[in-house]
Write a structure and sequence with these properties.
The protein has helices at residues 3-26, 35-48, 50-57, 61-79, 121-130; strands spanning 96-102, 108-114. It is mostly helical. The protein has two domains: 3-79, no CATH class; 89-130, no CATH class. A two-stranded antiparallel sheet has the order 1-2. Strand 1 (96-102) and strand 2 (108-114) form a beta hairpin. Helix 1 (3-26) packs antiparallel against helix 2 (35-48), helix 2 (35-48) crosses helix 4 (61-79) and helix 3 (50-57) packs across helix 4 (61-79).
Length: 133
Amino acid sequence: MDRRAIRTGAGELAEAKRALGQWRQSRERGRQIPEPLWRMAVKAAVHHGVQATARHLGLNSTRLKQWVQRLGSAWAEEDQAHFVELPWAGMAAVAECLVEAEDEAGRKLRIHLKGPATSQAVSLSRMLWRGEG
C-alpha cells in the first residue's frame, strides 16, 4: 500500500474517532449511532480492517462488520486501482514503403520511406522519374 493511501486511511480513522467522540458527549442515553457516523467508520474499516477499526473507535465489531458488508463493497471498489491500457507510440506499426523503378537504359530508382510520408511515395517517384522538379 502506498503512503498516500495510508495517510488517507489514517485521516479517515481520526476523523471518525473525533466525530464519534463528539456524538457520544452530546447524545441522549439509549440513542443509536446515526448512519453518517457508521458510514465514516465503514470507510475507515475498508482501509484498516473491521477489528482494528472497531477497537480504535470503541464500536461493536459485529455491528461494524454488518455495516461494512452493507456499504463497504462500494467504497472498496472505488478505492481499487483500475487497469487502463494505453497504447505506446513505440509499439505502433510504422508505415513503410519501398518504390523501385528501372528504365530501358538500365537506370534504377529506389526509394525507401518510413513514417507518414509513405502516402506521398508514388507521386514523388513519378516526379523524380519524369525529371520534374
